[in-house]
Amino acid sequence: MASAPPPILPVSSAGGGGGGAAGASAPAISVPALRLFLSRLSDSARRSLAHRRPWSELLDRTAFARPDSLSDAASRLRKNLAYFRVNYLALLAAALALSLLSHPFSLFLLLALLAAWAFLYLFRPADGPPLILFRRPFSDREVLAGLVLVTLLVVFLTSVGSLIVSALTVGAAIVCVHGAIRLPEDLFLDEQDPGGPAGGLLSFLGGAPASSGPAVRV
């Protein structure tokens, strides 16, 4: 007597008919564009730091003297800004970093804001799928408007904005005082390339080559 065949059990697909997409879609990020940005940022910082002046020359106490007049102080400041500009930018960055490190909550908010801009807008592929939150797709313009609104709220309704402004104010005051009392007579300003360090420091913000990968919003 032949045995009966086993009963066929119903099998459901893992996708569940698309019901798993009820939440939010994770934004895809262009990894080649991110690598290109980090590489260009590192190269720009390395080239700019190569133009910095020796810190011993910046802090040479024998070259400090009180200016005779306000015009003399302005002339010294202008020459020292042209000569020590990379060092002065490093001082401003150090003042900002120390101020943020002394306020961890503000640092966390700033890092979260930068991460939101990077992952939700800057490094998302231009031809990628739209951002989906709560089953609703958001266009690039809506994402940009939301990021701008969140940025304004973080900057003006928290301590981040005042902290950045105060740190840059203190750094600028230190730079102005040093530039006004530092004698520039021993500085060789003719060797300074007007577009070198400053241009190299921000050159990573330029457009990427066409063969570098997918188009991104940089």
Automatic annotation (TrEMBL):
Keyword rRNA-binding attributed: no
One Gene Ontology biological process: vesicle-mediated transport
A single cellular component GO annotation: endoplasmic reticulum
Lineage: Eukaryota, Viridiplantae, Streptophyta, Embryophyta, Tracheophyta
Species of origin: Ensete ventricosum
Membrane topology type: Multi-pass membrane protein
Function: May be involved in both secretory and endocytic intracellular trafficking in the endosomal/prevacuolar compartments.
Protein name: PRA1 family protein
Membrane spanning residue stretches: 20-38, 82-101, 107-123, 144-175
The keyword Membrane is assigned to this record: yes
InterPro entries noted in UniProt: Prenylated_rab_accept_PRA1
Short name of one Pfam family: PRA1
Subcellular compartments: Membrane
Keywords: Membrane, Transmembrane, Transmembrane helix, Transport
Family: Belongs to the PRA1 family.
